[in-house]
Amino acid sequence: MDLATILGAVIGTITVMVVMILSGSLLMYWDFMSLLIVLGGAAAATMMRWPLNVFLGGVKVGMGALFNNVESSEELIDKIIDLANKARKESILSLEKEVIENPLLAKGVRLAVDGAAPEIIDEILSDDMRVMKKNLADGAAIYDDMGESCPAFGMIGTVIGLIVIMANLADPSKIGPGLAVALVTTLYGAMMANMFFIPIAKKLKYRSREHLTNCLIIKTGVLGILNGINPKLIQQRLETYLGKESSGEE
């Protein structure tokens, strides 16, 4: 579980709720119709921009960013060096029974054990990298779109509320509560955008850089093992990825 994301969401929500409680009743800030127009409208507008399968996949990717940590590059390098040492001492076939949790590393090692040519392994792993990069980029863009749409639909809800108020000017008792509901919609739009959707989009962009760095480490490591390069030289090469951000270039 990604602790920073969970803590950020919890602390932000609690902070706003405490301020609401101290300023009056918490129920004063609750309005189902306001929530519906913000979330429903933002989701509908975002779905219109994307194919349905991409939209649903992007939402799933975002949830993964909330609850899943990316394997650290240092741990990944250590695992690859262990595999390189074993392959050098015994043979690359000795890696066949190795238990490898990282699916991309497991795929690369399996291809190497099966005798695939280096250029074939390079091509397959590079294709996987491109797919992963696209999925994460789509997910980030979808959450960016949701964050962009929420304040707009908050304003739409506010305008609707003001129209209702204007239609009931003859009854002053309805103006105050009506105005409060109208402003709550703007509040929901700002909160949803800035406390949830935009931060998740930023986290996905960061996760993308982490994943691509790990993919480059895996590809370089597997090809190094296959070519029989000294494990120390492989380690030196892999550690160069730790000092720079991946650009996704191969």
UniProtKB/TrEMBL annotation:
Keyword Transmembrane helix: yes
Membrane topology term: Multi-pass membrane protein
Main localization of the protein described in the UniProt heading: membrane
GO BP annotation list: bacterial-type flagellum-dependent swarming motility; chemotaxis
The organism's place on the tree of life at top rank: Bacteria
Keyword Oxidoreductase appears in the UniProt entry: no
Record key words, sorted: Cell membrane, Flagellar rotation, Membrane, Transmembrane, Transmembrane helix, Transport
Name the UniProt record assigns to this protein: Chemotaxis protein MotA
